[in-house]
Amino acid sequence: MSWRVVIVTRILPVALGFHAVLRAAGHEPVGLLTVRDSANRYGPEFTLDTLLRGLPPELDIVVPARRSGIAPLLASLRPDLVVCTGFPWKIPADALAVPTLGWLNGHPSLLPRHRGPVPVAWAIRNGDEEVGVTVHRMDAELDTGPIFAQVSMPIGEYTVPDDFYARMGPVLMGAMGEALERLAAGDEGIAQTEGGEYESFLPEDEAWIDLARPAVEMHRRVWAWRFTIPRSELRGALLDLDGETVRVLASSLTEVEGARRIECADAPLWLVDVEPAQAGEATASAMSS
Hints:
By secondary structure, the protein is α/β, with parallel strands linked by helices. The protein folds into two domains: about 5-185, 3-Layer(aba) Sandwich (Rossmann fold); about 205-289, Methionyl-tRNA Fmet Formyltransferase, Chain A, domain 2. Helix content is about 30%, strand content about 20%. The protein has eight helices and eleven strands. It has a seven-stranded mixed sheet with strand order 3-2-1-4-5-6-7. α1 (about 10-25) runs parallel beside α6 (about 160-185) and α5 packs antiparallel against α7. The radius of gyration is 21 Å and the shape is elongated. The termini are far apart.
């Protein structure tokens, strides 16, 4: 049986990947629901204009101005199913009820671990050795619905978000394909186990590198801040260095040629890539010292 499916995302590679997976499974992608540009939420490469220009021409596009507009706009596309990843709003109950088969969401963690908006950042911060993708049915709560597919992958060594998510992309698409097969077979998914935690954005008091802490912890802090979404102008990982506040973009626990060495509580840390902090962040540092 072929389903009418709406894709919900703000990320072009996700939209194109889901479109291909749906077509391969014999379903009809009929539209995309997205939102306008959101400050600090997605990088400059993920603008609404870039998204719309890159989509297949047969998709109808709906862009609600507020959460209350999701359900009526979605209903106009008459979907049997919605597939979602990379969407910044919590979906209201009336919108969840529109498609007869519900919503499938691809979440970049091994649920029930790391529920919330920046799961990869928390996995890095906590020193997890692996992360993954979970495709689950969306329900009234955040990231709590029954699981249809789950695939793990190693976090690996330090890498920038573009490279990391490029590696995760095929994992997400494979998991979504598996979930569609299980849904078509009448599977209702597997209830999540107890013990999961909801984690919001990284706390702002962890935006600073603390040289009184272990080097590995500060290395993870540097890395994790590359994968979070700042709630304000304050973005880590920040460090006062030679009278200037800088943002550390990359660090290493082993010596790197040309990198600046600093001493943490137990071991050195090498600053591989830094940039000047914004004026407001430098002021905040001065006030806190």
